[in-house]
Amino acid sequence: MSPLFDGVFKRDMAIAFRQKSELVQPIMFLLMVVTLFPLGVGPSPDTLQRIGPGVIWIAAILSSLMGMERLFRDDFQDGSLEQVMLSPVPLWQVVAVKVLGHWLVSFIPLLLLSPLLAVFLNLTFGMYQALIVTLILGTPLLSFVGAIAVGLTVGLQRGGLLLALLLIPVFIPLLIFATSAVDSAALQLPYQPQIAIIGAMLLLSVAASPFAIAYALRVSQN
Prior knowledge:
Oligomer: single chain
Number of strands: 0
Keywords: Cell inner membrane, Cell membrane, Cytochrome c-type biogenesis, Membrane, Transmembrane, Transmembrane helix, Transport
Family: Belongs to the CcmB/CycW/HelB family.
Strand content: under 5%
Membrane topology: Multi-pass membrane protein
Function: Required for the export of heme to the periplasm for the biogenesis of c-type cytochromes.
GO biological process, one term: cytochrome complex assembly
């Protein structure tokens, strides 16, 4: 990693851990959602096992939306985003580093908490294996695709609601394939096709999203 990209990454990490309340809010929201679902539908182990994968993925998507808005917010407010655009450094490379930092801060805690959530929702070991694979492949997709919408709305006041309206329909296919993979694992059926589709979506987003994010940021600045 070049010194510039190393500096961007370290700066984002420092800002994220300095604003501890914003860092903890998505994690607490995720835990509350997963905790409240069993209270609403009943504590039956079979019921929890059936809805568990969907609950975890819905909570992951909603909690990611809470932290998504800050991805470029600080850089936009202090003018550093404009300076990066005027510099000779390719903007798409900078935003790729920033998206990587967002994924590490937002979703690594979810991956670390996933064994506890799986036990809480009575998931079998096979279901948990499928769940963790979908989370590892699917959560970077949330960050890359979500960053495009963030780039379009970064200059708007209170763009969080618009961000949710833009992104929730886009994330529905990922939710369907991810929960389908875990359901297949619960029935001891092969779930490699769903994993392959999620992997293909991730590869496409990694290849195309940085350029789309850079274009969205330039549009929002004009």
